[in-house]
Write a structure and sequence with these properties.
The structure is a homodimer. The first copy, chain A, is α/β, with parallel strands linked by helices and about 180 residues long. Helix content of chain A is about 35%, strand content about 20%. Chain A has seven helices and six strands. The interface between A and B is large, with 70 and 70 residues. Strand 1 of chain A pairs antiparallel with strand 1 of chain B.
Chain lengths: ~180, ~180
């Protein structure tokens, strides 16, 4: 029997987390996302990455997600792709373009999440750690264009980062779980 | 209330389709995928794109998917990303690397699906239509590196295409639905 539905679940502990009010500054949002990445390591619920989408007008949190590649049996279950998709589920629309939003991410996007950002309708990206930081612990960014920042900006999406980079590096350094770059079993 | 689960459903008509035996040649597989893209247009269930994953040893169909961006309220619900994710659900593993598989797609991948291919563990990609064919009907490929074929091949993923290109172009030419490149509402 082959699957005809994809069901991506965030870990149960995240629902409790979401009871907290959303942070009210960019620094606070990045801090929240880095704390979520750290919590995902501690709970052993996925890779050392987290992301969230916030409305730029009210500061409302429209989604938050951690990496769940292994638990959801889905190589696409990266934090950024899920945070964008969850925000679209929250709004009930395939695009976020009707509401000015920012994607805040613990790391710069891989190729797949870069594409997901371009399609999402999000207006801004803010991230903590860089390609080199992520490669240092064994993860790959994939076949990504070096001109990615400019190409997002040309599509009307502003890009800021690295910010709180040392704090982000400390989170990455604490990860001891599997590295799953496509051909690792 | 914000969403904490992403549930991507393929259209009901696809389940009936999957009762048919899988085609037993590369040409037959491409023909199946192009027929699925055409059916998605006729049924008005999504964009003019389809993809499927087949095991290279037995020819077994491990997944098939059509584009469901609008119906699933999810900009990431492209055919290729879903076909790869569904095959992983079928196998119960986040990587396809334990089983030699091919992704057959109606079009060359966008940036997001290119990244998804790199992470999926798939061994081969075969596609029908090109970037220019897709751009002709208004879709964008996103911030994609021009070196994408070589970069997949460097990761051990073979790439073949365009194949059955005219047949694929005819399918694309029949599409009259929405074009959803991120910032289109």
């Amino acid at each position: 029997m082959i699957a005809t539905e994809i069901h991506l679940r965030q870990p149960d502990w995240l629902s409790d987390w979401l009871q907290q009010p959303a942070p009210d500054s960019e620094r606070g949002r990045l801090g929240e996302v880095l704390a979520l990445a750290g919590e995902n390591i501690r709970r052993n619920s996925g890779g050392p990455f987290a992301a969230a989408v916030y409305a730029l007008d009210t500061g409302e949190r429209l989604s938050a997600a951690v990496n769940t590649v292994v638990s959801n049996h889905c190589a696409a279950a990266h934090a950024e792709l899920q945070a964008l998709s969850l925000a679209q589920q929250t709004l009930g629309n395939h695009t976020l373009a009707g509401r000015a939003c920012v994607l805040v991410s613990s790391s710069a996007p891989c190729t797949m999440c870069l594409g997901a950002i371009a399609w999402s309708g999000v207006q801004a990206l803010v991230f903590a750690t860089t390609r080199a930081d992520v490669e240092k612990i064994g993860f790959d960014e994939g076949p990504k264009t070096p001109a990615w920042r400019r190409q997002l900006q040309q599509r009307g999406i502003s890009v800021r980062g690295p910010l709180l980079q040392r704090q982000g590096q400390a989170v990455l350094a604490g990860y001891r779980g599997p590295v799953y770059n496509g051909h690792n079993l």
